[in-house]
Write a structure and sequence with these properties.
The chain has about 70 residues and is mainly alpha-helical. It is built from 2 helices and 2 strands; from the N terminus they run ββαα. Strands 1-2 form a two-stranded antiparallel sheet.
């Protein structure tokens, strides 16, 4: 598998201790991964990813981002 297909919900830089946590990894196409990291993700797919991100922060007692 190509590493570009694995995306971290909680970023590697901001949350390095969760890099290998299987709950923090999603499979995405290269285009989706690029859009998620560098684009302006909008739409129902991204809403679900951001919901997962908030759930992980709650589960691991991490501060939530204010939008």
């Amino acid at each position: 598998p190509n590493v570009s297909f694995f995306s971290h919900i909680l970023s590697k830089k901001a949350y390095p201790r969760f890099i290998l946590n299987k709950n923090n990894i999603l499979l995405m196409t290269f285009e989706e991964h690029y859009e998620f990291d560098f684009g302006s993700p909008e739409g129902s797919m991204w809403d679900k990813v951001f919901e997962l991100k908030e759930q992980l922060k709650i589960a691991y007692h991490l501060p939530s981002e204010t939008i």
